[in-house]
Design the sequence.
């Protein structure tokens, strides 16, 4: 691809609101296209973002097949538009999505701390401030089976880490694989939110008692606001790309709102016309 676009100006170049520059070239030389097809032929693809769009494309294709619409293999309906990114690319990052809790009846932080002590190590990380939060998140990156925790009305940030003798494969019920159960987001969902706060999978999917935020400082501000409805926040580490691959290789899906691959291409740079 780099050889094909050498000395060519991009068709589109635009800078987004985050200062990221997006450039797009068109490759229409038949030999280049055939070589790309050949190299991708045996590659294994993982859907990092957009599985709903892919499923929708399949459903639309099946719907048209059921209607008897003639499809010769060259129509847009017979293709799904994708972008390919190497999972070894140094520029690829997975960002965390944090969980802000609200609407839990009779929520008492002291009771929750007491209940968690059997399974989690709980450590005080200092004052609840933006500066300390960012510092603590950076220091906690790479620490396995752990996340940060803050509660409305408390002025301290805490670290929750699963105890070394606590095996999520045994503690989390169901037929999911040990790899899936060991994900930090599932440890949080199953061993804290569901077990101790009564927040089930339906609540997580419908966002009835959980607000998902990518900005940790915004999440902290919501909990610190005495007039807000938000009761607590859990700050997650980003999942590792290797974990995403291992879960997919088991034929399983990542939990909702657990992966945010960055950077993303701008929506609308290319449009797939589905004319029949």
Sequence:
């Amino acid at each position: 691809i780099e050889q094909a676009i050498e000395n060519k100006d991009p068709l589109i170049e635009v800078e987004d609101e985050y200062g990221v520059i997006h450039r797009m070239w068109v490759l229409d030389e038949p030999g280049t296209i055939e070589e790309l097809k050949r190299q991708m032929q045996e590659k294994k693809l993982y859907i990092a973002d957009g599985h709903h769009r892919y499923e929708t494309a399949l459903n639309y294709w099946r719907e048209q097949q059921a209607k008897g619409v003639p499809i010769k293999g060259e129509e847009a309906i017979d293709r799904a538009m994708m972008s390919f990114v190497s999972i070894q690319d140094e520029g690829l990052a997975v960002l965390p999505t944090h969980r802000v809790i609200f609407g839990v009846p009779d929520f008492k932080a002291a009771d929750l701390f007491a209940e968690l002590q059997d399974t989690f190590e709980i450590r005080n990380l200092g004052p609840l401030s933006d500066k300390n939060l960012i510092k603590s998140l950076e220091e906690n990156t790479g620490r396995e089976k752990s996340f940060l925790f803050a509660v409305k009305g408390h002025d301290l940030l805490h670290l929750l880490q699963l105890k070394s003798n606590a095996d999520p494969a045994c503690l989390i019920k169901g037929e999911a694989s040990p790899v899936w159960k060991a994900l930090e987001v599932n440890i949080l969902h199953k061993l804290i939110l569901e077990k101790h706060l009564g927040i089930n999978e339906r609540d997580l999917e419908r966002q009835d008692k959980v607000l998902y935020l990518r900005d940790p400082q915004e999440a902290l501000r919501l909990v610190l606001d005495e007039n807000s409805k938000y009761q607590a926040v859990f700050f997650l580490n980003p999942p590792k790309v290797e974990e995403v691959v291992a879960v997919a290789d088991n034929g399983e899906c990542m939990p909702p709102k657990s992966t945010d691959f960055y950077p993303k291409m701008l929506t609308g740079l290319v449009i797939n016309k589905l004319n029949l």
The longest strand covers residues 120-127.
